[in-house]
């Protein structure tokens, strides 16, 4: 029996922060989009300016401490110095430290008080994407926050796309928690329309992944069609006549005893949710993963990065996979399939919900985040760490 939740804040019980999880790396911008001019980005409700100088990328708070002008409207006036100059009065800041190194309108003899500057952010470029670490602690290695298919670039290759969703990040991530909306909402997506409807009415289980970084989902049983008294068949007969193909791609599930993904590579879950807002969806072969990364911008906006990752299997396979992505996946999934979610999620009202058994994955994800999200070490722990380093 479903249980209604009366609290108008559906995330109050688990305390998922409205503007995202701090102390993690996030993909924020395709590397090719950062040229000679600084670029403004927003992540976890913080305004940040990215700029590239002498081949190195820097990230600073996008607000000059002098009079509040946007540094992203400024320029790298002194190429090779690794500095960014404010467009208003010429205050110039180091990309490495964030410190003010000059006040151009006050002359070179001006004394700059210690501490005058802006916040800096750890930033890296990987897989052609710029990544930022926004938090209250020292940045962890980027690979710590990436699944294997992203971190191990020598073993995997692929492509990425991004979309902007006008909804809160929590709504988008809940949508990816194997909540069984796909058999209904996506049943007529181009990549699935000729296949049987995804199994539904399954027994869904959610369990921690072996590395402790998230939740893995297992679905057992299920049906592809059924008759509903007083209504008729689902899927309706008018949709059934063209579903003649066998399940392939996203429609083909992993056999827990026979699929190479399990037997050869040891992947236990076809789909999983990982911190800080990652969804991994694999194939029975174990040679492909779709990695979907939810990036909070502010309370009402989310960046949705999709990485299609293929295991490297030689030049010919790489070329075929590239063609498959360009002429099929890039538009059938990253565009049309995802737009079916986008149209619904941007209109979702989160004041109240009535959870049901299909929401087992959603509930498990929310609890996992509340219990395991990364937090800065305590002051005692940090002191001990510094003493050990000395």
Short key terms for the protein model shown above:
390 residues; alpha+beta; three-stranded antiparallel β-sheet; disordered C terminus
Chain-averaged pLDDT: 91
- Helical element count? 8
Read across the widest sheet, the strand sequence of neighbours is 11-19-18-17-16-13-12
Report the principal-axis shape.
elongated
Find the count of extended strands (DSSP E, 2+ residues). 20
**Radius of gyration of CA atoms, rounded to a whole number:** 24 Å
Helix percent reads: 10-25%
The separation of the N and C termini measures 59 Å
Weakly predicted, low-confidence segments:
379-390
What's the order of the H and E elements?
A: EEEEEEEEEEHEHHEEEEHHEEEEHEHH
Q: Can you summarize the main beta sheet?
A: 7 strands, antiparallel
Q: Give the structural class.
A: alpha+beta
Approximately what portion of the residues adopt beta-strand conformation? 25-35%
Quick overview:
20% of the residues lie in helices and 29% in strands. It has 390 residues and is of the alpha+beta class.
Folded structure, characterized:
The relative contact order is 0.16. Helix content is 20%, strand content 29%. The chain starts with a strand and ends with a helix. With 390 residues, it is α+β, with helices and mostly antiparallel strands. A hairpin with a 2-residue loop joins strand 9 (123-126) and strand 10 (129-134). The chain has eight helices and 20 strands. It has a seven-stranded antiparallel beta sheet with strand order 11-19-18-17-16-13-12.
